Amino acid sequence: MLHAARELLAVRSPLDAELMVSELLGTWWGERAGRPVGKGNDLEELVGEGLVAYAAGHQSAPALALLCGVACLGTQRQAALAEKAALALLEKDIPRPPWADQVGAVEAAECYINSDPYGDGDEVVCLFSYAGAEPHALVMTVDYNTQGALRDGWVTSQVDTLLERCRQPRDTAFGAASPPEVRQLLSSALGITDSAAEPPVTPSFAAYHAFIRARIRALPPGRPARVPDVRSRRSARPPVGPEPASGWLGVQARQRAWTGDRRAMLVVEFLASDDAEGLSDRQAASRCTDHIINYGCEQDFGRPLRMSPAKAERFLLTWLPQKIMLTKAEQHAMPHVLAAWTRWAGVRTGLPEPLAEETLDAVIGAMETFTKVYRDPASFGLDSRLVARLLPDADLEALPRRAFAFPVLRGTFDGVDLATLDPTQPQAQRTLLAADHNDANGRPTSEQHLQRHVVLSDRLWRGDPPELWEAAQRMLDRGQDRHAVQHTLMYVIRDAGDDPAKLAEELAKLS
After folding, report:
1. Where are any strands of DSSP class E within 159-265?
2. 3-state class of 126 per DSSP?
3. Under a CB-based contact definition with an 8 Å cutoff, are residues 207 and 155 in contact?
4. What is residue 241's predicted lDDT score, i.e. its pLDDT?
5. Strands 149-156 vs 133-143: parallel, antiparallel or unpaired
6. For 208, what's the count of Cα atoms within 13 Å in the CB-facing half-sphere?
7. Which of 59, 112, 135, 460 is 20 to 30 A from 261, alpha carbon to alpha carbon?
8. How many other C-beta atoms can be found within 10 angstroms of the C-beta atom of residue 259?
9. Cα–Cα nearest to 342, from 362, 327, 370, 369
10. Numbers of helices and strands, H then E, in the chain
11. By percentage, how much of the chain surpasses pLDDT 90?
12. Cβ–Cβ contacts within 10 Å for residue 510, how many?
């Protein structure tokens, strides 16, 4: 990489220099060091800081050029180390590259958002220059069907041409946005991308990642303008009208507005509509509608009425099979309920008829695939009654960690029929765990030890924090005994006390 950095000496444009350094830093972006993600395990830190240290030891113009670039584009720690090393080389009269002063003079200008007609995503356009010289635009794509991840980015110096094309009449909604608002949107989206185990990005994204991160930092901070909530908080009637096209903007206000009562009212209104008249099993239809609304509120940024082909397919073919346990009746009803919901929601939000028809076609086209990809836990040979006790909330994703937390759910212990106990109740949890820890001679475990197991199992049941089950899986995958894994987790929880950050940090170290 230091050898490749010699090309930076032939570059005069600070923009070209930054893009070249960004591509270098993107070589290892998204890769992991074969260990759990956590402090010291991110290759961007391990290799990046190693590269800075290596360059610092070479008294050469390419080394200084590379350090100048990393000082602007690296992580905060990389940037600080690179700046310190670059100053040391300058003191030794190593010639600096011609663009070195300009890369530190980046100024943000106007920002724009171009929203997809379905609301599936935003194209964010941010304008920058080097103290007024060499203007350029960074265009980034935020995908709301992948939890709002930032999935693509590219740069152009043809700013006027870009804006002219964006302003031409089209289906998308293009308009100006405040830079602090855009900074918050992009910071949230990039955070989702960076934290994903398999980031949903384009092949070229890694080369732009460091550049994008640096440009987001260059946007002015500040409190974004509050999105007004025109709905009365006392009204039980959900809003009527178009869903917001942009997912991140105003998301917290929208999610707060969708209370349990409002969601229930929306179910009632849908089931009473002409579109839902053909749904024969009303009870199954009601439960299916609950899942559709909850998905829209929690996974689609507080937009339960928004529908699109991509959203419908992701809900039906990916999220439901992975997250929710449906009964046989609900499995049969779900595609038909989703089709009826698509027609009803499209009218309520004013979705243009061609787009509504395209969405409905996507739902109908996915019906056969849904019956193939969805799997009832009973099809794996699991006892349906045991599964029902572990999943009273139908959260299919929770099944393995809850079975890990409470492996004994039937039999008799101390005169109690374990099959009658509800694992959601504290006293029942204690009895189930006591049965699990009773040794072969009938001697119960100590009260203090049992209480630690209760705390751990309760956290695993609720998935609080998510890192707890992730750490358990890593240790189990390495062949550790289930009970030994539980003991390790118990003592990590004890030592972390009430500090969530410390708990997450210690869990990340477990493997």
Report:
1. 173-177
2. strand
3. no
4. 57
5. antiparallel
6. 20
7. 460
8. 14
9. 362
10. 22, 7
11. 66
12. 19
CB 335 within 8 Å of CB 370: yes
DSSP 219: S
Vertex 19: Cα angle to 17 and 21 (nearest 5): 70
**Residue recorded with tokens 């894994």:** 485
* Contact (Cβ atoms closer than 8 angstroms) between residue 120 and residue 90: no
Is the pLDDT reported for residue 490 higher than 60? Answer: yes
- Write out pLDDT tens, residues 195-254: 887 899 999 999 999 999 999 999 999 765 444 333 333 333 444 556 666 788 888 889
Nearest to 312 by CA among 356, 350, 359: 359
B/e letters for 212-227, b = 16+ CB within 10 Å, e = fewer, are bbbbbbbbeeeebeee
Cα–Cα distance measured from residue 117 to residue 62, given in angstroms and rounded to the nearest whole number:
47
Distance from C-alpha of 391 to C-alpha of 402, rounded to nearest angstrom:
8
Q: Which of 404, 306, 390, 297 lies closest to 351 in space, CA to CA?
A: 306
DSSP 10: G
328, 254 contact by CB (below 8 A): no
CB proximity list for 462: less than 8 A, separation 6 or greater: none
